[in-house]
Specification:
Layout: H1 6-27, H2 29-55, H3 63-104, H4 118-132, H5 134-150, H6 155-181, H7 187-228, H8 233-243, H9 249-264, H10 269-292, H11 300-345
Helix pairs in contact: 2-3, 2-6, 2-7, 3-8, 7-8, 7-10, 7-11, 8-9, 9-10
Length: about 350
């Protein structure tokens, strides 16, 4: 005769709730992504807010420091848009107009001592491939333009993210305390407190590192492209800097684009390729580990898995969030494992005789 098992029923209900939670997250993925971007924006701005907060005299609220930080941020954004953004847009328009002619007139390099080199062979294959698909690329431009225009309806998020970030910065400590208050005093609360502290340090370090790496890439690329006289240098440097926010795949895409444009415009593609490879080695093995710190250290295979899995699940948003999500999982796993090991090593109290 079949009986009722409370344990089995509890397991079924737990599994059902987990499935329901994943379905809810999927349905609300756009809204959740906006809030995640707002949280990351808050972590990006937090050092500046803390700087003003420590130096403002008197007993006052955090709102004044937030206001000063936002005013400074808007000023920096205006300078970047006017000095760099406008030039990048002009170069993008020029490249779009010249691109079909550049494809048609891109001929095979003249024979010479290095004509049979691996570089020339690769560039020639790229030339043939692009030329064969040029009609498809040109016909795809109207559809791409429509996609860009459709993004105008999402400009609300550009305003919404700083507003949400303002509340995260203003009430972040209170939110953290409310999360801790959901757990009673004891080992679980200590574990949750440690996990929250690690997550706070991780996100702060990650966002700071992304911005610094992006700024470093733009500076280095702009200087080198100016030296070699590469056309559309500001546009390519700005695009490569933005692609730094997408792990591994982003820099690779940016590098390929730069080499192709250099070959199309008749620049020294080999010198640019050598520079890109040298800079990538310098950034990946010297700059990035120093800036990122130990909290974001992940095996390259795990990063690649996260990037491709994130792309399949949520597109560009998934690739952008893949590394912090994997790092968060790693933090939770290490903290739980450490807590269990400490529990096993702690001797049980013995009763008195």
């Amino acid at each position: 005769m079949l009986g009722f098992s409370r344990r089995a029923a509890s397991s079924v209900w737990t599994a059902a709730l987990v499935v329901l939670l994943f379905c809810l997250v999927y349905l609300l993925r756009t809204t959740l992504f906006v809030f995640i971007l707002a949280l990351l924006f808050a972590y990006l701005l937090a050092p500046l807010v803390n700087f003003f907060d420590r130096r403002l005299p008197g007993d006052r609220s955090r709102t004044i420091a937030l206001s000063l930080s936002y005013i400074l941020l808007v000023g920096i954004a205006i300078v970047i848009i006017t000095q760099i953004g406008s030039r990048a847009v002009d170069e993008a328009n020029t490249l779009a107009k010249k691109f079909p002619d550049m494809i048609q007139h891109w001929e095979k390099p003249a024979a010479g001592p290095g004509a049979d080199s691996l570089t020339n062979q690769i560039l020639d294959k790229v030339r043939i491939e692009i030329a064969s698909r040029s009609s498809g690329l040109i016909s795809a431009l109207p559809a791409a333009s429509l996609k860009v225009l459709s993004l105008a309806s999402n400009l609300l998020y550009v305003v919404l993210i700083p507003i949400l970030g303002f509340f995260f910065l203003k009430d972040g400590s209170m939110m953290r305390q409310h999360i801790l208050d959901m757990v009673n005093e004891g080992p679980r609360r200590v574990l949750l407190d440690e996990v929250l502290a690690d997550v706070n340090l991780l996100l702060a370090s990650y966002m700071r590192a992304l911005v610094l790496l992006s700024a470093a890439a733009f500076t280095a690329y702009s200087i080198f492209f100016s030296i070699v006289g590469l056309q559309f240098g500001v546009l390519l440097a700005a695009g490569a800097a933005l692609l730094e926010f997408i792990p591994m795949i982003g820099p690779l895409t940016g590098g390929i684009t730069i080499v192709v444009v250099a070959a199309l415009t008749g620049s020294n593609a080999l010198a640019i390729l050598i520079f890109l490879l040298s800079y990538r080695v310098l950034q990946d093995y010297v700059i990035s580990p120093h800036i990122m710190g130990q909290g974001v250290e992940l095996h390259p295979l795990l990063v690649l898995f996260g990037v491709f899995a994130g792309a399949e699940i949520a597109g560009v948003a998934g690739t952008f969030l893949s590394v912090p999500v994997l790092a968060l999982i790693r933090i939770v796993y290490r903290r739980i494992r450490k807590s269990r090991i400490e529990t096993r090593l702690t001797p049980e109290p013995t009763g008195s005789l």
